[in-house]
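Entry:
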Amino acid sequence: MKLELYRPICFFDIEATGINIGKDRIIEISILKIYPNENKENKTWLIFPGIPIPPQSTAIHGIKDEDVEGKLEFKDVAHHILKMIANSDLAGYNSNRFDIPILAEEMLRAGISFDIKKHRTIDVQVIFHKKEPRTLSAAYQYYCKKDLRKAHSSKADTFATYEILLAQLEKYNDLKNDVKSLNQFSYQKNIADLAGFIKIDEKGNEIFNFGKYKGQKVYEIFERDPNYYGWIQNSDFPLYTKKVFTGVKLRKFNKK
């Protein structure tokens, strides 16, 4: 089944030095941009992370320190990436929990404002896990009837993710083929900050999802314990999470 598009959608995959959103760095990003007229363009950047690539990460994606030596840093390619995804929706495999949060973190670190609200997102893994829990390679085998021989190459994973989504649309009659519906099906609606430190309650209030104030409203805690906001800003939370906390603080206290 054809994917119904009203504006471009960018399938993308990221390889990184690790999985810590706040500390690790992107070393490769590949983007496959699909236009409503079905034209495609793709681009892959190999990036110097500024920190060593741990052997356990190399064992997964095969990228070594020497492979990125002399490559541009993320801040040098950030505007090119931003231009490619501008006015587009975003899709990936486990992208809601990893690729989008770490991309947002790198953008903010590069001094570029990143607002996920400008993009509808589709997480193909969420659709897969709701339908047939598996890994990416198993998903590719299950839906596309082919082996993903170059799994954990960002380019191979990006193209495979696009093929899987098309196969999912073909297989499941209850899945609508427009981005808005797929976004609603795969999006983590109760998460406010990408990394999951801030949740949204049934009334739309931001609440803490960690620590001693877990389950309590963010703005109420900032009123009762103003130092807690300062502690968050000085701690090792992702930059996007800090940005959301700041937004809550400014929105609530500016109303007074």
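The longest strand covers residues 26-34.
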